[in-house]
Design a protein that fits this description.
- 34% of the residues lie in helices and 31% in strands.
- α1 packs parallel to α4 and α2 packs parallel to α3.
- The longest helix has 20 residues.
- The protein is of the alpha+beta class.
- A hairpin with a 2-residue loop joins β5 and β6.
- The two termini are 21 Å apart.
- The chain has a single domain, classed as Ribosomal Protein S5, domain 2.
Length: 194
């Protein structure tokens, strides 16, 4: 079973995440940040990951620490669950349309955690959610998961649609990259390691 249980507690947040890569999209999320809960739900359901996130943070300050730290812990969970990376597809990509919006996400389980997030939105808020926090989440996630992640807005106007399409596209791209490929022997790298 490719699964992980990761917890992290600081003076700002207390987060516990359970992840199963080969799940059915069963998601249970509670972070105290409503729009972010919705995004993590979309991420898990479209990635077909079984995902449980329990987070308490200093949201009386703002949502930044909670969102970024969830990215850290979820990235650590992916790194733990994927293990030695033997037999995986390694690369994955997905285009996700939502009405007027189209977003591309592409991922490589390279071991080199970096994110390239070019998803401009016109508004600073979706409800009470600071739209810039989506980028902070993906940067933290990619770094800790050890993946190279590209997220690009192809077209779109509605900020809710844009951010949601980004989370769905990332979930689907990760699902593809994590999948076992029966034709791959060992680690899918010309160097022999990732």
């Amino acid at each position: 079973m490719r699964q992980a249980h990761v917890a992290r507690a600081t003076k700002e947040t207390d987060i516990a995440i359970e992840l199963e890569l080969d799940g059915t999209g069963c998601v249970d999320v509670s972070t105290g940040v409503g729009f972010f809960d919705h995004m993590l739900d979309a991420f898990g359901r479209h990635g077909l990951f079984d995902l449980k996130v329990q987070a308490k943070g200093d949201i009386q300050v703002d949502d930044h620490h909670t969102v970024e730290d969830c990215g850290i812990v979820l990235g650590q969970a992916f790194a733990q669950a994927i293990g030695d990376k033997k037999g995986i597809r390694r690369f994955g990509s997905s285009y996700v349309p939502m009405d007027e919006t189209l977003v591309l996400a592409a991922v490589d389980f390279s071991g080199r955690g970096q994110a390239y997030y070019e998803v401009p939105v016109a508004t600073q808020k979706v409800g009470t959610f600071d739209t810039e926090l989506a980028k902070e989440f993906f940067i933290a996630f990619a770094r800790e998961a050890g993946v190279t992640l590209h997220v690009r807005l192809i077209c779109g106007e509605n900020s809710h649609h844009i951010i949601e399409a980004a989370f769905k596209a990332c979930g689907r791209a990760l699902r593809e990259a994590c999948e076992d490929d029966p034709r791959v022997e060992g680690v899918p790298s010309t160097k022999g390691s990732l």
